[in-house]
Amino acid sequence: MSQNKFPSLREVHMKKILVTGGLGYIGSHTVVALQEAGYEVFIIDNLSNTSIDVLQGITEITNTPPSFVRLDLRIKSDVEKFFQTHKDIDGIIHFAASKAVGESVENPLLYYENNINSLVYLLQECKAHSISNFIFSSSCTVYGEPDVLPINEEAPIKKAISPYGNTKQISEEIINDVCKVSSLNAIALRYFNPIGAHESALIGELPVGVPQNLVPYITQTAAGVRKELSIFGDDYNTPDGSCIRDYIHVVDLAKAHVKAVERLINAENSAKFKVFNVGTGKGNSVLEVVTAFEEISGKKLNYKIVKRRPGDVVAVFADTKKANDELGWKAVHNLKESLASAWKWEKKVRGI
Ligand code: UFG
Hints:
By secondary structure, this protein is an alpha/beta fold. The protein is about 40% helix and about 15% strand. The protein contains 12 helices and 13 strands. A 7-stranded parallel β-sheet has the order 3-2-1-4-5-6-11, with helices on both faces. It has a two-stranded parallel sheet with strand order 7-10. A two-stranded parallel ribbon has the order 8-13. The model has no long low-confidence stretch (mean pLDDT about 95). The structure holds uridine-5'-diphosphate-4-deoxy-4-fluoro-alpha-D-galactose.
């Protein structure tokens, strides 16, 4: 609040959004988008898979330091305490979760505890403090292997392949159930494959250890951090034999969250619980991504074809009509732009 007797116009209109996992990859880009759209942001993060330096990157981009508290959402008493002292929250975007498919197979309880318990504690606080706007980070992983492409939101949810995928399915069900019996209004955004970084290269994706995902593996290989990219299979039933995904620029994805927040805050959600695909609508194969990267970077990528990775779906890309029409959102960056931003970020991180 300003020193003046009356709050400024900006203070009157500023809605406060709590962003859990707000220092993570997608979270940090969303915090930037929210601040740029005029929202006040409060970040909760336990720093388990990111660094406090991200806060500085967000602040440099937006000239506004978001509020931040280090908090582990698995500790129910800490979550309760947080909400007792922060009563003016207009909405929550819940990113905080574990997200490595392979790790979830090795350690399912970590995933059920971190992804499910935390969600339940948050929703309990929503109920206790009448917070009715909730946005959830879901994933196209809930569809499993699609029968029809592009895939739309009406497609059946198939049995999850990994505990990670299962947590996303269960979480959507939990939120839907709570919406039916409370004032909660919620949107689940089903992300396709987020890649890239903010154009400033002040924030981006910083995987801990060996990257599990394609694009950070590519950029680290090009930067000389990894010797060689392994392409998991070239014998799939696709035009070039490699798997097809819908790679979406993380800044476009971040903006979908702002649209979702607006929709909830303006009470425009036509149902208590809505799901939206957030992708580009275009599928690209792994080999196409490699070629596009070579073109934008001017570097020849060292890669070899290896056997298929268990659990990979052959092809998935989004039908984005619902997000376009109802959310008023559309991805604007193409694959090459996304890869160029990822490469710019990698070079910045490595000092090259
Ligand atoms: N791939 C390779 N080599 C690699 C890494 C990936 O060939 O070193 C291939 C995969 O086999 C797949 C494609 O690149 O065909 C994309 O793989 P990613 O691991 O980047 O992403 P996924 O499509 O497997 O998506 C997974 C989860 C999503 C989650 C996403 C980001 O299924 O739910 O990772 O964490 F959102």
